[in-house]
Amino acid sequence: MGEFRRNKIILLFIYLFLSAGLILNLAPLAWMVSTSFKPGSEVFRFPPKWIPDSLDLANYKKVFAIIPFERYYINSIVVALLLTAVTVLLCTMAGYAFAKMKFPGKNGIFMLFLITLMIPFQATMIPLFRMVSSFGWIDTYQGLILPQISTAFGIFLIRQFMLSMPDAVLEAARIDGSSQLRTFWKIVVPMNRGAMATLAIFTFNTAWNNLLWPLLVTNREQMRTLPVGMALFRSSRDIDWTAIMAGSVMSLIPMIVLFLLMQKQFIRGITAGAVKE
């Protein structure tokens, strides 16, 4: 009985600790949403008021009136979606090749990919920018997308998942006369949807929040993405916290929608291999 009671107390403290961590993580988000509905005079009110008196959409309308927010939004969605789709496709194909195909120098080439993970983006930023500029890709979608596709992290992630895929399934497909391309689309892709969903969420999140590269390759306001537009909006005018919070709340919507649509595959992907069958 004493052992059972001790376990219950330990479990209670674990839940309290996790609940405290959850509150600490959700508090900034709750404050951002609350501030987006407040008038400017209540932002720094003390004691702070978490729930505004009314849900006024004036701050959301102000964002669209001051800056071309809808254009920034469209640019970010186009760049993030295309970048995610191409990256997932290329990384899946490369991961399959490194995991299940045999060719000379496979391990050495894969190690070279892993070495690039240790090179910071700042080290390659200038030569990459000069290449994009020489191609005439400044202020273009290809300049925003192509230099960032097919990351070494994505290839590594997909390869590790595919190493656990049974070789017998692929061999059976070859015996039945299936080509490599057909095997890839009909067998490999369906069996690795969890890994692909995990990579898609990571890639979309990185592309959606990327500030440095879009800031370098965009000069015209019509080609700016949402992080760049919001950053310049804050630096070029008096800091309107209510409008900034309103824009930040709207910028969260695509990430929330993506996770809700892919949460089952994402959870299956990050927990793969955690339980032995």
Description:
- With 277 residues, the chain is mainly α.
- The protein has one domain (56-270): MetI-like fold (Orthogonal Bundle).
- It is 72% helix and 0% strand.
- It has helices at 2-35, 58-66, 69-100, 106-115, 121-134, 141-145, 152-162, 167-175, 180-191, 193-209, 212-217, 226-236, 241-270.
- The protein is globular, with a radius of gyration of 24 Å.
- The two termini are 33 Å apart.
- Residues 273-277 have low confidence and may be disordered.
Which helices and strands, and how do they pair?
Blueprint (H helix, E strand, L loop, with lengths): L1 H34 L22 H9 L2 H32 L5 H10 L5 H14 L6 H5 L6 H11 L4 H9 L4 H12 L1 H17 L2 H6 L8 H11 L4 H30 L7
Helix pairs in contact: 2-13, 3-7, 3-10, 3-12, 7-10, 8-9, 10-13, 12-13
Distance between the termini: 33 Å
The CATH class name reads Mainly Alpha
Secondary-structure element string: HHHHHHHHHHHHH
Shape: globular
Binned, the helix content reads over 70%
Q: Which spans have pLDDT < 50 for at least 5 consecutive residues? A: 273-277
Mean pLDDT: 85
Strand percentage lies at under 5%
- Under CATH, the topology can be stated as MetI-like fold
Class from secondary-structure proportions: mainly alpha
What do we call the CATH homologous superfamily?
MetI-like
CATH architecture: Orthogonal Bundle
Q: What is the count of structural domains?
A: 1
